[in-house]
Amino acid sequence: MSQAFYDQFAAVFAQNGLDAYISPAVAEQFEDLTARMLETNRTMNITALTTLDKIIPLHFADCITVANRLPRSATVLDVGCGGGFPILPLAIVRPDLHLTGLDSTEKKIRHVQSTADAMGLRISTVAARAEELAADPAYREQYDVVLSRAVARLNVLDELCLPFVKIGGQLIAMKGAAGAEELTEAQIGIQKLGGEAESTQEFDLQTAAGPEKRALILIRKVAPTPREFPRAFGAIKKRPL
Ligand code: SAM
Prior knowledge:
Layout: H1 3-15, H2 24-41, H3 52-64, E1 75-79, H4 87-93, E2 98-103, H5 106-119, E3 123-127, H6 130-133, E4 143-149, H7 154-161, E5 165-175, H8 179-192, E6 195-207, E7 210-221, H9 233-238
Parallel strand pairs: 1-2, 1-4, 2-3, 4-5
Antiparallel strand pairs: 5-7, 6-7
The structure holds S-adenosylmethionine (SAM).
Residues 80-83, 85, 102-105, 108, 129-131, 149-151, 160, 233 line the site of S-adenosylmethionine (SAM).
């Protein structure tokens, strides 16, 4: 591992209160992930961020802000994992988790699975649309926690994600500055889907360009999701619940 990478990684993680995840072994894996991501990015658009001063805070630290909220050995589904966020950073710092990545773009899923395999990270992946996969009993109401970052507004995301959460489990929506406002707009839908908004954790993500607003929206699954949900994507988007 290069000393320059370690110094930058350790500084950004410390600035963001993520000291518990700073070690040479973890930094080495993040450096490896960076190299693999940038290599894939030459032929497939998986990230617009290509320099360390952006990748470390805006991808790695941002994803790890959720790490200490996940119960030990939990089953976790990352809906719309794209190029591997948050699933790959979480697989590095929380090897106890049973992580599954879901995305509708098959080539992104191939990148995520092959990167994990090459790095010795244990994850599963599935290429499918969330609203279709949620009808499959092997996936419906099977996860302790469902995570999603940068996929849809909460009043659409709730219908894509809550059907996968076990009763008693949680949806954690990783949001930006508009998180609290999105929650207000989604409250009725969340209830119809068997969820209950539990709390919103707002904080500043420290980046090279200054602080950026973030919100983790925690929604508890308190009742089964009625069979009619999720609807087809067109209906979800056109008429959010
Ligand atoms: N979560 C990643 C991140 O934070 O970098 C990727 C975000 S990217 C902007 C949104 C991803 O969600 C895309 O890869 C897209 O294919 C996926 N996606 C959108 N709608 C989906 C659906 N209904 N089912 C599965 N994946 C979906």
